[in-house]
Structure formats: C-alpha cells, structure tokens
Amino acid sequence: MAATFNVNAEAGLQKLDGYLLSRSYISGCSTIDLHQCCKVAPAADDDDDSDVDLFGEETEEEKKAAEERAAKAKASTKKKESGKSSVLLDVKPWDDETDMVKLEEAVRSIKMEGLLWGASKLMPVGYGIKKLQIMMTIIDDLVSVDTLIEDHLCVEPANEYIQSCDIVAFNKICKFLVPV
C-alpha cells in the first residue's frame, strides 16, 4: 500500500521529508505521485494565470506594444544621412618654377560625387616656393581622402605639378538642432 501524507499540515510535511530522504518517489512512478505533488503546491488565489493566453490571441495593449516596436524598428532601418567632413589639404609643388595656377586647376579638376572644393590660398614654404592650401568638404560614405590623394592627386596628369599632399586638418561637420 502507498504511503499517504497530509501535506497541508506541518507534521505531514515533516513525515514526507523523512520518507523522501531514502527515496526519490512517493509511491513509485504513478498518478498517486502527481496527486501528492498537487497537494504540496496548490495554486494561490492571488496567483491568477487567467491573463496568460495559451492560444496566441493578443490583447489591445499587446497589439499597441507590438506596433510601437515595429515603428521603432522601421525608424532604425531608415537610411541615415551620411556624415560630412571638412578637410584642409597642403598641396606641395615640385619646385619654385611650378605654375601654381595650373597646379590649382589640376586639383580642382578632380570631380567626384560627394566632393566639394572650397577656398584656397598660396602659403610660402621657403626659398621662393609656395604651397597650395585648399579646403574641401566631403561626404564620408562617398569619398575617401586617402583614395582621393593616392588615386587622383598623385597620378598623371596632376603629378606633373604636385610633389605631395598632406592633410592639415580633418574635422567632422556636426548638425545642431535648434529648437524653434
């Protein structure tokens, strides 16, 4: 005969604990064990699981929350505007006999999507040699400054006038939102 325990009383729980010290079961593997376990852990009245939907039907609150998550996900997948940078280049000629007007024309003749040439001026280096300092604004995702220098400024025909190029300043352009 199976042992019975009154798990609703303290003495019955102690008797069950003593019984389970030498066994891993109450009465073999049977439905009696299930009934005993159900007596050990009855559901409390305040622990109501009626709000759990086992069939996947959503409440209005859940639908609104899902719509908000979808809207946030859609907003994050929108194409973000690429950053811009302002770059100041030093373009150095080969010698003092280099025609600086043609050097600047060679630099400004480089056209790329996302590249905008700005102001320029001639700066003395020494011994009558001047360098061209020129500003450019680039869209970061479209123009690589290193590629611009290596593939466009330091190759034919521009290298006839240009000895080297250096980046003097590289600044990110930030957008500030001003409240209206």
Detailed description of the structure:
One of its GO terms (cellular component) is eukaryotic translation elongation factor 1 complex. This is Translation elongation factor EF1B beta/delta subunit guanine nucleotide exchange domain-containing protein. By secondary structure, this protein is α+β, with helices and mostly antiparallel strands. The protein contains 5 helices and 4 strands. A hairpin with a 2-residue loop joins strand 2 and strand 3 (129-139). The termini are far apart. The model has no long low-confidence stretch (mean pLDDT 77).
Observed structural traits:
4 strands, elongated, 32% helix, 2 domains, elongation factor, eEF-1beta-like_sf, EF1B_bsu/dsu, alpha+beta, translation elongation factor activity
Write the topology of this structure.
Elements: H1 10-20, H2 31-40, H3 60-77, E1 84-93, H4 100-108, E2 115-126, E3 129-139, H5 145-153, E4 162-173
Antiparallel strand pairs: 1-3, 1-4, 2-3
Keywords: Elongation factor, Protein biosynthesis
Organism: Triticum turgidum subsp. durum
GO molecular function, one term: guanyl-nucleotide exchange factor activity
Gyration radius from CA atoms, angstroms: 39 Å
Which quaternary structure do these chains form?
Answer: single chain
SSE pattern: HHHEHEEHE
Distance from first to last alpha carbon: 84 Å
Strand percent estimate: 25-35%
Low-confidence stretches: none
Strand adjacency order, main sheet: 2-3-1-4
Number of domains: 2
Mean pLDDT: 77
Main sheet characteristics: 4 strands, antiparallel
